[in-house]
Amino acid sequence: MPPFHYSFKMKDFEATRNFYAGLLGCEEGRAGETWLDFDFFGHQVTAHLSDNFPELDYCGLVDGVSVPIPHFGAVLSLPDYLRIKEKLEAANYPFTVKPQVRYPGKETEQHTLFILDPSGNPLEFKSYSGTEEDFI
């Protein structure tokens, strides 16, 4: 699968660097006066300075849990998911949706968690347990 590119808003350069590069371990790429690139688990994401942040909408209902829409994130191997989860827990980073296992025992079983980055952008990290397929 080719990498995707996603651009999103940020409030502050240093907080964004500390979160994506420092906490999550994403390598920083190019940067300009108003933007930063990161290698987000093999994909390019670009944060742009803004002061216009709409209120979050928790209209997504997945397995009885309200999730923020829109959001982006990464589908990871289980060891990589657990590594990110443990980093967040060690940093006492607040979860928007606490780590959980959805659809336990089924082929679609998945580990998932939601957080907000320092600018309030919702991120989901997940890993599928029962299959290597992301789109079933």
List the helices and strands and how they pair.
Layout: E1 5-10, H1 13-23, E2 27-31, E3 35-40, E4 43-49, E5 57-62, E6 65-69, E7 72-75, H2 78-90, E8 95-102, E9 110-116, E10 122-128
Parallel strand pairs: 1-4, 7-10
Antiparallel strand pairs: 2-3, 3-4, 5-6, 8-9, 9-10
What does the largest sheet look like?
4 strands, mixed
What distance separates the N and C termini? 16 Å
What is the CATH C-level name of the largest domain?
Answer: Alpha Beta
**Number of continuous helical runs:** 2
Q: Hey, roughly how much beta strand do the residues contain?
A: 35-45%
Would you count the extended β strands for me? 10
The appropriate CATH architecture of the largest domain is Roll
Total domains: 2
Mean pLDDT: 93
Q: List SSEs in N-to-C order.
A: EHEEEEEEHEEE
Rg, rounded, reads: 15 Å
Low-confidence parts lasting 5 or more residues at pLDDT below 50?
A: none
Q: What is the helix fraction of residues, given as a range?
A: 10-25%
- Principal-axes shape call: globular
Structural class: alpha+beta
CATH topology of the largest domain, anyone? 2,3-Dihydroxybiphenyl 1,2-Dioxygenase, domain 1
